[in-house]
Specification:
Strand content of chain B: 15-25%
CATH architecture of the largest domain in chain B: 3-Layer(aba) Sandwich
CATH topology of the largest domain in chain B: Peroxisomal Thiolase, Chain A, domain 1
CATH class of the largest domain in chain A: Alpha Beta
Number of strands of chain A: 22
CATH architecture of the largest domain in chain A: 3-Layer(aba) Sandwich
Distance between the termini of chain A: 36 Å
Strand content of chain A: 25-35%
Radius of gyration of chain B: 19 Å
Largest sheet of chain A: 9 strands, mixed
Number of strands of chain B: 11
Number of helices of chain B: 14
CATH class of the largest domain in chain B: Alpha Beta
Largest sheet of chain B: 9 strands, mixed
Oligomer: heterodimer
Helix content of chain A: 25-40%
Number of domains of chain B: 2
CATH superfamily of the largest domain in chain B: Thiolase/Chalcone synthase
Radius of gyration of chain A: 23 Å
Number of domains of chain A: 3
C-alpha cells in the first residue's frame, strides 16, 4: 500500500489585515487577512519548516528523496531542494528535485513521489510545497494572496491515506503568468478563467478519475479542489455536483489567502485533518492542466500524531504592526545597504555545523561542543571527537533587544539559550514579539535567512518562541 | 628578570580624547609622545625600541598595521617597532610587551604608544559596521559591542533582582569625574533621569550606558628600576602585570560554562597581577583604579572580577558611593571609557597615565586623597582577553 505517511504545515505567524491595508491606501480594507512570510523567510525556509513538522518523531534515515515545489524559489539556478535536505539533515545519498513553474507543481511533485515509491526507488519521499506570493502594492490581490507551505511524506509503512487512483490532464492555458525577471503575476480575465478554464477542467478530471475508479459522486466523502478565492470555491460547488457534505470549509482563503502552489496541498491536509478511516478523498489540483488523485483514509488516520496542526497553525497569528513594515519585508522600500562578509568556501567546509547543526562530543571526557572544535577544552584530547547533534529546543539564558543592527523588523533580539541535551546556542531570535522576550522563555531553533552578503543567501538558525 | 617591581614608569602622556577631526592618526601619536618625553625627561633619541598598540587601523588601511608607522612618524628609525593588537586590551598589551623587553635587559628605555583614529568615518561606520559586515559568515551575526555586554546586563539584573537604575548611576559617577578632566571626550555631568530616559541601544543598555566613539593616543616610557632615577626621580614602579584569555571570539556565547555574570579573563589576569604585587585584599590594598567601563554594566562586573566586591555585590559599591572620588576606592577618576572615550589602542595607556597622575598627585580637581597603589584594567573582545596592571611608588 502506497500513500501519505505523514504531513506537516508551516503558516508564517505574521498576518496582514484588511484594516492595515485600508489605513495605508484608504477605503474599508475588509475583514479578511493573509499570512505574510517574515522578512527572514522564503520558499526554502518555509518548506524546511513544513517538512520538519512532517518529520517530527520519524526516523530521517529512511527518507530516500525530497521534492520541493514552488513558484517562488529563492534560487532560479541552484538546487533549492538540496538546501532543504541539508537543513533537515537528511542522508546524502538521496534523490532531490525542484518542481516549479506551475501552481500545480506541488501535485506534480507528489505524483512523482508516489511513482518513485511504487517503483521502489525509495522507501519514502518527502514533498514540500511552499509559496511566497507577491502582488502589486495597492492592488486588490495584495490581500487575496498569502504565504505558506505544506509537507507530505509518501511511503508504504504506516500509511494514513492510500493512493487508490490517479489521472493527469494537460492543457496549455495563458491564465495566470509571470515572466522571467517579473515579481508580480499577471492574471487573464477572471470570469473567463473561472468559467472557461478552471471549472471545466476540474469537472473533466473528476469524471475521468471516478470512471477509472469505478465510483460515483455519492461515494466520495471529501472533495478537494483549488480555486482562486473563497467565493469562487463556493460557486464551483453546485457545478461540480458532489454531495454538499463533501465540500471543504473555505476558511483557508480567508485566514491566510491564496497561497499559490501550496494551496492544493494545504487544502488536502485540511481534509485529512478531519477524515475518518475509510473516507474517500478526491483531490483535484489545477494549473496548466490538472492532476487528480483518489485517496482513502486508513485506520491509522485517527491516531496520527500531527492531526490538528493546521488548525493550530491558523490560530497562531499576530498582526503585522504596519503596512510599511510589510513592504519592507518584501524589499519594496529602499533600506540601509549592508554587505556582510561571507565565503562559500567557509560555508561549504562548515556545512555540517552551520546547516546540519552537528557539533562534537569528546570521546575521552564526554564534553560536548557546538560549534565543533578539534582540541577538547576540558581534557585537551586532540581530534578524539565523535559526531554529536545539537538539540533543537532550549530555554533563553540571557538576551538583549539590540537597536543597532539594520533590520526590517527592529530590534534584533540576540539571545543565548541552553539547549536540551547539552550545549548552548547564541544568535538571533525569530518571530518574537520584543515585549514578550524574556529570560527563561522556551524556544526552538528554526531555519531562516540570515543575510545576503556576497549576493547569495546565507541561511542559519534562529531561536523562535514555542 | 620579571616585570613586577623591576620595571619603572618614567613618564606618560595622552592627547585630548574626542572627535579630533583636525588631527590624523600620526598627529595624535606625535602629541602624546612629546608629552611623554617631557614627562619622562628623556630625548627621543634615547628610545631603543617601541610597541605600537592599534586595534584596527581604520583610516587608511595600512597606517598602523605595522609598528613602522610609529618609527617613521616619530623619526625613531632604525629602532625596532612592532604593532600589537589584542581587542580592547591592546593598549595595556603594548605596555606589557614593552615591559618584558626592558625587564630582560635587551633594552634600557622603551616606549609603548596606543593610538586609535575611530572618527575618520561616521560613528556607525566604525564599530557597528565592523560587527555587521565582518566576522564569520553566520556565527554571531547581529552581535554588536553593546549587545555583547547587554547580555551580561540582562543576566546580572535578573539574577540580582535589580532595576536598570543601577547602570545609570555608574554613568552619572563617571560623567562627574570626566567633567573634571579637561582631556575627557565629554566634560559634562548628567543626571540619573537623563540616563534612564536616554534612547535604548542594546536593552537594558541605553545611550548613556555606552562609551562613545573616540579618537586619541597615549604613550608611556619605561625603563628598569636601577636606571630610572638617572632620568626622572619621580618615577613609579610596575608592581604586577597580569594578562589572560578565556574563550573564542565566535564561541564564547555558545559556551555553557559561561555564566554571563563575570569575565574569567579579568579574574585570571587580576589573580596573576595581585600575586606578583603581593596583594591579598585588593579592596583594601588598591587605592585608586581605572577599569574597563566600556559599558556601565562592565564596571559593576569588573568590581567583582577584580576582587573589589564579592560575587553579586559589585552593584553595592555604586549604591554606597564606595567608588566615587571621595569614596574608599575611587574608580575611573578621569571619567573612564564612558566619559573620557575609548580610542581602543590608546585606552589602556590612558588608564596607566591617569593612575600614575593620581599617585603623583597631579590630578587637580579630581585628585583623590590617598593614592599610593593604583590599578589599570582592560577587557577585550567579547570579554575573552584582559590585562591588569598594578602601579605604585618605588
Amino acid at each position: 500500500m502506497v500513500g501519505i505517511t505523514g504531513y506537516g504545515v508551516h503558516i508564517p505567524s505574521y498576518r496582514l489585515t484588511g484594516q492595515a491595508v485600508g489605513a495605508a491606501w484608504g477605503g474599508p480594507g475588509g475583514k479578511t487577512e493573509r499570512a505574510v512570510a517574515n522578512y527572514d523567510e522564503d520558499a526554502v525556509t518555509m518548506a524546511w519548516a513544513a517538512l520538519d513538522s512532517c518529520l517530527a518523531g520519524k526516523p530521517r534515515g529512511e527518507v530516500g528523496g525530497i521534492y520541493l515545489a514552488s513558484t517562488s524559489l529563492p534560487y532560479l539556478e541552484m538546487g533549492n531542494s538540496a538546501l532543504v535536505a541539508s537543513a533537515l539533515d537528511l542522508a546524502r545519498d538521496i534523490h532531490s528535485a525542484d518542481f516549479a513553474g506551475s501552481l500545480r507543481a506541488g501535485a506534480s511533485a507528489f505524483l512523482s513521489a508516489v511513482n518513485g515509491v511504487k517503483a521502489g526507488m525509495a522507501k519514502s519521499i518527502l514533498v514540500a510545497v511552499s509559496d511566497l506570493r507577491q502582488a502589486e502594492p495597492g492592488s486588490p490581490a495584495e490581500l487575496e494572496v498569502g504565504d505558506a507551505a505544506g509537507g507530505l511524506m509518501v511511503g508504504s509503512d504506516n500509511v494514513i491515506a492510500e493512493i487508490k487512483e490517479t489521472i493527469s490532464l494537460t492543457r496549455e492555458m495563458v491564465d495566470v503568468w509571470r515572466r522571467e525577471g517579473e515579481i508580480y503575476p499577471h492574471e487573464e480575465d477572471a470570469r473567463f478563467i473561472r468559467e472557461n478554464a478552471i471549472l471545466p477542467l476540474l469537472k473533466e478530471a473528476a469524471e475521468k478519475l471516478l470512471k477509472k475508479a469505478g465510483l460515483t459522486k455519492d461515494k466520495i466523502n471529501k472533495v478537494v479542489y483549488t480555486a482562486p478565492d473563497a467565493r469562487t470555491s463556493q460557486t464551483f460547488q453546485k457545478s461540480l455536483g458532489f454531495p454538499e457534505t463533501s465540500y471543504p470549509a473555505v476558511e483557508l482563503y480567508q485566514k491566510i489567502g491564496n497561497v499559490g502552489a501550496a494551496l492544493p496541498v494545504l487544502l488536502l491536509i485540511q481534509a485529512l485533518e478531519t477524515a475518518k478511516p475509510g473516507d474517500r478523498i478526491l483531490w483535484l489540483a489545477y494549473g496548466g492542466g490538472c492532476d487528480a488523485f483518489l485517496l482513502e483514509a486508513t485506520d491509522k488516520i485517527g491516531s496520527f500524531p500531527n492531526r490538528g496542526i493546521l488548525a493550530q497553525a491558523l490560530e497562531s497569528r499576530r498582526a503585522i504592526s504596519s503596512y510599511g513594515k510589510f513592504l519592507q519585508f518584501r524589499g519594496n522600500l529602499p533600506a540601509e545597504k549592508v554587505n556582510p562578509y561571507t565565503s562559500t568556501i567557509i560555508l561549504n567546509r562548515e556545512e555540517s555545523a552551520i546547516i546540519r547543526l552537528h557539533g562534537v562530543r569528546c570521546q575521552n571526557c564526554g564534553e560536548r561542543y557546538f560549534p565543533p572544535r578539534r582540541i577538547c577544552k576540558k581534557c585537551r584530547a586532540k581530534d578524539k571527537f565523535e559526531d554529536w547533534k545539537l538539540g533543537r529546543r532550549g530555554k533563553i539564558y540571557t538576551l538583549t533587544k539590540d537597536h543597532l543592527p539594520p533590520t526590517p523588523d527592529p530590534p534584533v533580539i540576540m539571545a543565548s539559550a541552553d539547549i536540551e541535551g547539552g550545549g548552548r546556542f547564541y544568535g538571533q531570535m525569530a518571530d518574537c514579539d520584543p515585549a514578550k522576550a524574556e529570560i527563561g522563555m522556551e524556544v526552538e531553533l528554526t531555519f531562516r535567512r540570515l543575510h545576503e552578503g556576497s549576493g547569495f543567501i546565507n541561511y542559519f538558525w534562529k531561536m523562535r518562541p514555542i | 628578570m620579571p616585570i613586577a617591581g623591576e620595571v619603572a614608569i618614567l613618564g606618560t602622556g595622552y592627547t585630548k580624547f574626542g572627535e579630533n577631526f583636525d588631527w590624523d592618526y600620526k598627529d595624535m601619536m606625535i602629541d602624546a609622545a612629546y608629552q611623554a618625553y617631557a614627562d619622562a625627561k628623556i630625548d627621543p633619541g634615547q628610545i631603543q625600541a617601541a610597541w605600537l598598540g592599534t586595534y584596527l587601523p581604520y583610516a587608511w588601511g595600512f597606517e598602523g598595521v605595522s609598528g613602522s608607522t610609529l618609527a617613521d612618524t616619530l623619526a625613531l628609525s632604525p629602532i625596532p617597532v612592532v604593532r600589537v593588537s589584542n581587542y580592547c586590551a591592546t593598549g595595556l598589551e603594548a605596555v606589557r610587551n614593552a615591559a618584558f623587553a626592558v625587564a630582560c635587559g635587551e633594552y634600557d628605555v622603551v616606549m609603548a604608544c596606543g593610538v586609535e583614529k575611530m572618527r575618520e568615518v561616521p560613528g556607525r561606520g566604525s564599530l557597528v559596521a565592523q560587527h555587521v559586515e565582518k566576522g564569520h559568515p553566520v556565527y554571531c551575526k547581529g552581535r554588536t559591542a553593546p549587545g555583547i555586554f547587554a547580555l551580561l546586563a540582562s543576566r546580572y539584573l535578573h539574577v540580582n533582582k535589580l532595576s536598570d537604575e543601577i547602570l545609570g548611576k555608574v554613568a552619572v559617577k563617571n560623567h562627574h569625574n570626566g567633567s573634571l578632566n579637561p582631556k575627557a571626550h565629554f566634560q559634562r555631568e548628567i543626571t540619573l533621569e537623563q540616563a534612564r530616559k536616554a534612547p535604548p541601544v542594546a536593552e537594558p543598555l541605553r545611550l548613556f550606558d555606552c562609551c562613545p566613539t573616540t579618537d586619541g593616543a597615549a604613550v608611556v616610557i619605561l625603563t628598569r628600576k636601577e636606571l630610572a632615577a638617572k632620568f626622572n626621580k619621580d618615577y613609579l614602579l610596575i608592581k604586577g602585570f597580569g594578562a589572560a584569555t578565556s574563550g573564542g571570539y565566535f564561541t564564547i556565547q555558545f559556551d555553557p560554562d559561561f555564566d554571563f555574570l563575570g569575565f574569567r579573563a579579568t579574574q585570571e589576569a587580576a589573580k596573576s597581577a595581585y600575586r606578583q604585587a603581593g596583594i591579598s585584599d585588593p579592596a583594601k590594598e588598591i587605592h585608586v583604579a581605572d577599569c574597563h567601563d566600556c559599558f556601565t554594566i562592565t564596571e559593576i562586573i569588573n568590581y567583582e572580577d577584580l576582587g573589589f566586591a564579592p560575587r553579586g555585590q559589585g552593584w553595592r559599591l555604586i549604591e554606597e558611593g564606595v567608588t566615587t572620588l571621595e569614596g574608599r576606592l575611587p574608580v575611573n577618576t578621569g571619567g573612564g571609557l564612558k566619559c573620557s572615550g575609548h580610542p581602543i589602542g590608546a585606552s589602556g595607556i590612558r588608564m596607566i597615565s591617569e593612575v600614575c597622575d593620581q599617585i603623583r598627585g597631579r590630578c587637580g580637581k579630581r585628585q583623590v586623597k590617598r593614592a599610593e597603589v593604583g590599578l589599570a584594567h582592560t577587557l577585550g573582545g567579547p570579554g575573552t582577553v584582559a590585562c591588569v596592571a598594578v602601579v605604585g611608588r618605588p
